[in-house]
Model the fold of this input.
Amino acid sequence: MLKFFYSGAPNPMKVALMLEETGLPYEAVPVDTRKGEQHTPEFLAINPNAKVPAIVDGDATVFDSNAILLYLAEKTGKFLPANTPKLRGELLSWLMFVASGVGPFAGQSVHFRQYAPEKIPYAINRYMYEAQRHFGILEARLAKQKYMVGDAYGIVDMAVWGWARLIPNALGEEYWAKFPNLKRLVDEISARPAAARANELRTKHKFKTEFDDEARRAMFKHMDVKVA
Ligand SMILES: N[C@@H](CCC(=O)N[C@@H](CS)C(=O)NCC(=O)O)C(=O)O
Done:
């Protein structure tokens, strides 16, 4: 059976949503990143980048959330647009845009706003600006069409859901007002039974909730190493 290595964080949750949407049977394997379980040799053999999510499906190992979304969509033939060059081009562009832009900038915005030991105005301003700029590009797209690619709900919408629902953490609660179409999409997806099941999954395993020294050492390794 397909194994899904996960935690309750945004990138694994997109994959949980997709697994629940497809109905594929899977075994959820918790990786408690606040306890450092992402750094074990067994997990590094699955994802050398020491992050969740990852999946093992027979002899296929896939890491990085949007790569997994595409793999599962191709495996099942579900949640993909029609296979025309135009829509395929849009699918790949938006999937990579969410992976390389939206996720990292929103993630850094959360980091500098909430976790960095010092509040550095330059860093907070840069990442909030970039996170807003990226969400604004999604918002403009969704003002023109209901879903991100083509005319049906698909894997790019799931990728967007993973991060856009964290807008209150990445930017602040009041920012929803700037992104009404993103909010519409997030609300629509969150109301789906598959999203409810994906959210429920994290309650099935007891992940560490404290963000203490052990968690900081496991997730912010740069704090112990001086490179600059
Ligand atoms: N590009 C990767 C990023 C994965 C990622 O950053 N995962 C976070 C959770 S959302 C994680 O595992 N953090 C633990 C750590 O950084 O040690 C993806 O899209 O899957």
Q: What stands out?
A: The chain is about 55% helix and 10% strand.
